[in-house]
Each structure stands twice: as C-alpha cells, then as structure tokens.
Amino acid sequence: MQWKNLSSKISGSQFKRLTGVKRNTFEKMCFIVRTVKQQRRKHPNRGKEPSLIVEDQLLMMLMYNREYRTYMHIAADYGISESQCWRIIDDLQNILIQSKAFSLPGKKALIKSNIQWSVV
C-alpha cells in the first residue's frame, strides 16, 4: 500500500478503516513529521533524498501499529531493508509522542466514564 495508490482511490471512511485514523488526522501527522525532520537537518540542501516520502513512512507506521505485521513483511512491501523499516517506524513514533498532539485518554478519564467492563 503506497500513498500514490491510496490517496485518490478510496473514500474517507475506507481510509479510516484501513489506517485507523481519519484523513485529516493523517495530514496533521504528516505536517508534524515534516516540520520536525526539516528542523533536524543541518544542511537542508545536501544529501540524498529519502527513498520513501513522509506519507509512505506514516502508512508503514500505521500498518505496523494497526495490523501488527512484522518489520520484514512491511519492508518487503516497500522495498527497503528490515532494519531501515524499524528505524523509520521508531523515529516516527518518537516524533509523534514528543509532539504531544496525539494522545489516548488517561486512566482517570477511563475511570470516570460510565462504561461497564466485563471479563469473559
């Protein structure tokens, strides 16, 4: 699944089903990752261009987190090495965690909710 194939061919609801996030959340993630990566670069006009665009890198991360696929299978889909796949996913996860723009509800919020949990 690559961004150029995915962006124009599916609807917003299918995008959410496939990736686990809404399209506008995905675009916000892309913006944050691009901004952080540009700020990190010492020489923005030097060096080799990355083999994957930011959108493909984020799709890899979401695929890993949503489907629990192995790094080997994801890397094979994108034509990169397994170690490069791990580095990309780890880096993106750290960028998004440090941005604090996305978070799950905390323990207190879950306790305050009126949801009745049952163990089967």
Strand content: under 5%
CA-atom Rg in angstroms: 17 Å
What is the count of structural domains? Answer: 1
What class do helices, strands and sheet pairing give? mainly alpha
Order of helices and strands: HHHHHHH
Largest sheet: none
Mean pLDDT: 85
Q: What is the end-to-end distance?
A: 36 Å
Per DSSP, the total helix count is: 7
Helix content: 55-70%
Unreliable residue stretches: none
Q: How does this structure look, described?
A:
The chain has 120 residues and is mainly alpha-helical. It has one domain (3-112). It is 63% helix and 0% strand. The chain is built from 7 helices and no strands. It has helices spanning 3-6, 12-19, 23-40, 54-67, 71-78, 82-99, 107-112. Helix 3 (23-40) packs across helix 6 (82-99), helix 4 (54-67) crosses helix 6 and helix 5 crosses helix 6 (82-99).
Compact summary:
With 120 residues, this protein is mainly alpha-helical. It has seven helices and no strands.
